[in-house]
Design goal:
The protein folds into two domains: 2-136 and 310-321, Rossmann fold; 145-307, Rossmann fold (3-Layer(aba) Sandwich), CATH 3.40.50. The protein contains eleven helices and twelve strands. Helix 2 (59-64) links the parallel strand 3 and strand 4 (66-72). By secondary structure, it is α/β, with parallel strands linked by helices. It has helices at 15-26, 59-64, 89-109, 118-123, 164-174, 191-200, 214-223, 238-245, 276-288, 290-307, 310-321; strands spanning 2-6, 32-35, 48-51, 66-72, 110-115, 129-131, 151-155, 182-186, 206-210, 226-229, 250-253, 269-271.
Length: 322
């Protein structure tokens, strides 16, 4: 089976780019594959041309189209206007209209579409939508209990979509119960969003760590008491899988993709989007019910090992190519 993989260059700084790196590392060796470098590569005979991020499709690939073109669609935020507080909301409304027209054209050129959550699948209108579970490496061993800090981590980009406004409100509430609590924000953020988040979090124990290497992220996962993803809308959330694979307790909002792996008080804690008080209670629970929280983290790791391992992703991808 000959597969041409189309991926953007550069360091992985988003969930989609981390996924693309994992596909190149693990799926490409399992097939007769190559990475797209120039338009002439399209002239060879390929069973499938797999674009690993539909947002970054080279124009020659898009213009070619065809039944053997497989488009990876990682999110559905462009399908509807943003419905959450953000300093750039007017710009987002304009961009959403432009992106919607563009993506509908791109989707029309693809023979098949691969998604990674039921939430994204439900939002798309395409004749052939295939779901392939995301996969992450499963580290061996256990976290050292003594290393854990009174810190909760939010990792990712697009902080206002990821719910920093209700998260900061939740932090203010939770500090009454856990005065030593600290919030860590990791990821390469848009400059205007970063400035707005820093302004809103003034006088709060919030540390903006910026972009972190995979090795530095491993250290953070090892040290924090939990990972939070309080998004208003989320296609899935790669950081949730990475945390669960390491037995790190997770808190997420019931906003689409996260609910497919985070079962409330079974594999983590799930709260309504925008509910600062429920989010604060979940954060405090990490420190007040440590034994129970540890059991949820163990169940989360078991779920990831069963459904979201690298081997499971490779198998699902090969099946999608057939």
């Amino acid at each position: 089976m000959r597969i041409l993989f189309v991926t953007a260059k550069g360091r992985p700084i988003t969930g989609a780019s981390i996924y693309a790196r994992l596909v190149i590392e693990h799926v490409l060796p399992a097939v007769d594959g190559a990475v797209y470098a120039k338009p002439r590569d399209l002239d060879d005979r390929w069973d499938a041309i797999h674009v690993l991020d539909g947002k970054r499709i080279p124009r020659p690939v898009w213009k070619r189209g065809g039944d053997n073109l497989i488009l990876d669609v990682h999110d559905h935020y462009w399908c509807s206007p943003p419905d959450f507080p953000a300093p750039d909301r007017a710009l987002r409304l304009l961009a959403q209209k432009i992106r919607k027209r563009h993506f509908e054209k791109v989707l029309g050129r693809a023979g098949r579409v691969i998604v990674h959550s039921d939430a994204v699948a439900a939002a798309l209108s395409h004749r052939s939508v295939l779901k392939v579970n995301l996969g992450v490496p499963i580290p061996s061993g256990r976290r050292a209990e003594e290393k854990k800090r009174h810190a909760i981590l939010l990792a990712g980009r697009d902080l206002f979509r990821k719910g920093v406004v209700p998260l900061f409100d939740a932090l203010r509430i939770a500090l009454d119960a856990v005065p030593s609590l600290e919030l860590l924000l990791a990821g390469k953020e848009y400059p205007h969003a970063l400035a707005g988040a820093k302004l809103l979090s003034a006088h709060l124990p919030v540390r903006f760590l910026g972009e972190r290497t995979p090795e530095e992220m491993d250290t953070l996962y090892e040290e924090v008491a939990g990972v939070v993803l309080p998004s208003w809308i989320e296609a899935f959330g790669m950081t949730i899988l990475e945390a669960m694979a390491r037995r790190v307790p997770v808190i997420a909002t019931d906003c689409g993709g996260p609910a497919e792996v985070v079962r409330h008080r079974v594999t983590g804690q799930l709260v309504p989007p925008g509910d600062s008080r429920a989010l604060a209670e979940a954060m405090v629970t990490l420190f007040r019910e440590k034994r129970l929280v540890a059991s949820w983290a163990e169940a989360g790791r078991d779920l990831v090992a069963r459904r979201h391992s690298i081997d499971a992703m490779v198998s699902g991808m090969i099946e999608a190519y057939c």
